[in-house]
C-alpha cells in the first residue's frame, strides 16, 4: 500500500491543508518521503462531526460486529506485510525483530479485546428487580449497564509506534468499549501511522460500520492535538508521552466547559530495590540482568529501571561491578528521534555534572549522531533526599544507584518517590520479612510490584496493571495495558422502571445476549 501523506477523515483520504510534516530516518537523520499535510481546523471539524454521528450507531451494534471489526483491523495490519515493518524500522530506529514483535503484540491486543467484547462482562450488567410488596416502601426496578463515553482522541506514543499508536492499546480498548476514535499521529512516525490508519479505515468499510468510527489526523503544530482535546464532541483522551505534554493536555481538558478524562501515561523511574540477602547471594547475576533491562530498546521504555535503592557495602559494590562490566560492552543504540536523543544527552550530562553524583559506567561510545550511550550513576541517600531533580525520569538507558545506610532509609526514600508504574523487589526467602514492610508504601505509589525481575516487558493480559499514581499516569485508577483498559472509556447508567420494550438487549429479563450478570447482588453465570 502506497503512503500518500493524506489525512483519513471517515472514508475519505484528504490532503491536509495546514502545513506539512515529514518522517525522519532515525538512524541517518534524512527526511523520508512523502510529506504529510497537517490538518486544518475545518478538517478537524469534519473528523469530529463524523465521529459524533457515528457514536450512537457504533455503540449499539451487535457485540459480535464490534468484535469482528477488531479482528478485521488485526488482519488488515498483518496484510500490510513487510512495507509496514520497513517503514516502522526506518522511522523509529528500532531493530526489525523488535518491530515484528510489536506488530504481534498489536494484533494480539486487538484480538484479546475482540474476545472481551464477545464475552460482554465489560457491560457490568446488574439487575435489582422491583419488589412491589416491600414494606414500608415498594422497591423500584433498577437495571445497570456500562455505556461508552463517546468519541475518544488517541495520541500515539513515540516509543511504541505500533502497540501504542494508531491501532495500539488505547485505540483497541476505546473501540472495544464502543467509542469512535480520532487518532492524532505522532510526528515521529507519520508513515507508520498512515499505513496502520489505512488498515483501520479499510476495516471500517469491510465491516460496514459508520465512516466516522475512525479518523486519522496529522498535526503540523499543536493546534490539532489541542483542538481535539478541546472539542465538545470528544469525551476522553488517551496519551503516552512526556510529562509536559500530558499535563498540558490534562489542563486543557479540565478547563473545558465539560471537563473530560485524560488517560495520560507520562513519567516513571521504576525503582529497583535490592534486599540484603538477594544482594549478598546473587548481586553479580542481578547486576548483569539489570544492565540488560536498562539498555533494552535504548532504554526508551516507560518501565525502564531508572533508580536502584540498596544498602551500601561490598555486596552493592559487587552488583555495581557486574552492571558496569555489562554496560561497558553495551553498544550505543539509535534513539527514536533527534529530539529525544538531545533530551537524553542533556539530562545525562546534567546528571554527570551534578556535584553529588558519581558516574560509575558508560556504555560503548555512539557511532551515529542520534545514538544513545548507556549511563550508570550513583549518589548517597542524603543527596537523593535533598535534590528532587535526581528523582526525575531520564528517558533512555540511564540509571541512578542510591547508596543507603540501612533498610529504614530505603523505605523512607520509597515514601518520598512520586507515583510509579512499577517497582521491582530483588529478594531471597530470608528477605521476605523486610520486603513485607515495604509493601504498603509500594502499593500507595505503584501500579505493578514485581519480584526478582524488571518492569520492562509488559504482559498483555487480564491481570496486568500498566498505570500508577501521578505522574506515572494522570489517573492511577486505571490501566492502559490489558483487558481492564476498556473500563477507562465506559461509565455506568441505571434504568429505573424502564419497560421491557425500551430496555437495551443487555438488560432484558430473558437475557437474550447470554451475559453474566448480577441479579439482586448475586453473580449469575450465563453458562
Ligand atoms: P511528547 O512530546 O509528549 O509527544 C507526545 C504526543 O503529544 C505527540 O503526538 C505530540 O505531538 C503531542 N503533544 C505533546 N505536547 C503537546 C501539547 N502541549 N499540545 C498538543 N499536543 C502535544 O512525547 P514524545 O515526543 O513521545 O517524547 C518526548 C519525551 O516524552 C521523551 O523524551 C520522554 O521523556 C517522554 N516519553 C515518555 C514515555 C513514557 O511511556 N513514559 C513514552 C514516550 C516518551 P507531536 O508529535 O506533534 O510532537
UniProtKB/TrEMBL annotation:
The keyword Oxidoreductase applies. It catalyses: 2,5-dioxopentanoate + NAD(+) + H2O = 2-oxoglutarate + NADH + 2 H(+); 2,5-dioxopentanoate + NADP(+) + H2O = 2-oxoglutarate + NADPH + 2 H(+). This is 2,5-dioxovalerate dehydrogenase. Keywords: Oxidoreductase. It comes from Caballeronia sordidicola (Burkholderia sordidicola). The keyword Oxidoreductase applies. InterPro entries: Ald_DH/histidinol_DH, Ald_DH_C, Ald_DH_N, Aldehyde_DH_dom, Aldehyde_DH_Superfamily, ALDH_KGSADH. GO terms for molecular function: 2,5-dioxovalerate dehydrogenase (NADP+) activity. CDD domains: ALDH_KGSADH.
Amino acid at each position: 500500500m502506497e503512503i500518500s501523506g493524506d489525512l483519513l477523515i471517515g472514508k475519505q483520504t484528504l490532503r491536509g491543508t495546514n502545513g506539512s510534516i515529514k518522517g525522519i530516518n532515525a538512524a541517518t537523520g534524512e527526511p523520508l518521503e512523502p510529506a504529510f499535510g497537517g490538518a486544518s481546523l475545518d478538517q478537524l471539524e469534519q473528523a469530529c462531526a463524523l465521529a459524533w454521528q457515528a457514536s450512537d450507531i457504533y455503540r449499539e451494534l451487535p457485540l459480535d460486529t464490534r468484535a469482528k471489526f477488531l479482528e478485521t483491523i488485526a488482519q488488515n495490519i498483518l496484510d500490510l506485510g513487510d512495507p509496514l515493518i520497513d517503514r516502522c524500522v526506518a522511522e523509529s530506529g528500532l531493530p526489525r525483530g523488535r518491530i515484528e514483535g510489536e506488530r504481534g503484540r498489536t494484533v494480539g491486543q486487538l484480538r484479546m479485546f475482540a474476545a472481551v467484547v464477545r464475552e460482554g462482562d465489560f457491560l457490568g450488567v446488574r439487575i435489582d428487580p422491583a419488589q412491589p410488596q416491600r414494606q414500608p416502601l415498594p422497591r423500584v426496578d433498577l437495571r445497570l449497564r456500562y455505556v461508552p463515553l463517546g468519541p475518544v482522541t488517541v495520541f500515539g506514543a513515540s516509543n511504541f509506534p505500533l502497540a501504542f499508536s494508531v491501532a495500539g492499546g488505547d485505540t483497541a480498548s476505546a473501540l472495544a468499549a464502543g467509542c469512535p476514535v480520532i487518532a492524532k499521529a505522532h510526528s515521529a512516525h507519520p508513515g507508520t501511522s498512515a499505513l496502520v490508519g489505512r488498515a483501520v479505515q479499510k476495516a471500517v468499510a469491510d465491516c460496514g460500520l459508520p465512516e466516522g468510527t475512525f479518523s486519522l489526523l496529522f498535526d503540523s503544530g499543536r493546534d490539532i492535538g489541542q483542538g481535539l482535546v478541546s472539542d465538545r464532541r470528544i469525551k476522553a483522551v488517551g496519551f503516552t508521552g512526556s510529562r509536559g505534554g500530558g499535563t498540558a493536555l490534562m489542563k486543557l481538558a479540565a478547563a473545558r466547559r465539560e471537563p473530560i478524562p485524560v488517560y495520560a501515561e507520562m513519567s516513571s523511574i521504576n525503582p529497583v530495590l535490592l534486599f540484603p540477602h538477594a544482594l549478598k547471594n546473587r548481586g553479580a547475576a542481578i547486576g548483569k540482568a539489570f544492565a540488560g533491562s536498562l539498555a533494552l530498546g535504548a532504554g526508551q521504555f516507560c518501565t525502564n529501571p531508572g533508580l536502584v535503592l540498596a544498602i551500601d557495602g561490598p555486596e552493592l559494590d559487587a552488583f555495581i561491578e557486574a552492571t558496569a562490566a555489562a554496560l561497558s560492552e553495551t553498544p550505543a543504540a539509535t534513539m527514536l528521534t533527534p529530539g529525544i536523543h538531545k533530551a537524553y544527552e542533556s539530562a545525562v550530562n546534567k546528571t554527570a555534572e551534578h556535584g553529588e553524583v558519581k558516574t560509575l559506567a558508560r556504555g560503548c561510545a555512539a557511532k551515529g549522531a542520534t545514538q544513545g550511550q548507556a549511563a550508570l550513576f550513583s549518589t548517597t541517600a542524603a543527596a537523593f533526599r535533598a535534590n528532587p531533580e535526581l528523582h526525575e525520569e531520564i528517558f533512555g538507558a540511564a540509571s541512578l544507584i542510591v547508596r543507603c545506610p540501612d533498610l529504614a532509609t530505603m523505605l523512607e526514600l520509597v515514601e518520598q518517590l512520586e507515583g510509579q508504574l512499577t517497582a521491582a523487589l530483588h529478594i531471597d526467602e530470608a528477605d521476605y520479612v523486610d520486603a513485607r514492610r515495604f509493601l504498603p508504601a509500594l502499593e500507595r505509589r505503584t501500579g505493578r510490584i514485581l519480584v526478582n525481575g524488571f518492569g520492562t516487558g509488559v504482559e498483555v493480559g487480564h491481570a496486568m496493571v500498566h498505570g500508577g499514581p501521578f505522574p506515572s499516569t494522570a489517573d492511577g485508577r486505571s490501566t492502559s495495558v490489558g483487558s481492564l483498559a476498556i473500563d477507562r472509556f465506559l461509565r455506568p447508567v441505571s434504568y429505573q422502571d424502564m419497560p421491557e420494550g425500551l430496555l437495551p438487549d443487555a438488560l432484558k429479563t430473558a437475557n437474550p445476549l447470554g451475559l453474566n450478570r448480577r441479579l439482586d447482588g448475586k453473580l449469575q453465570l450465563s453458562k
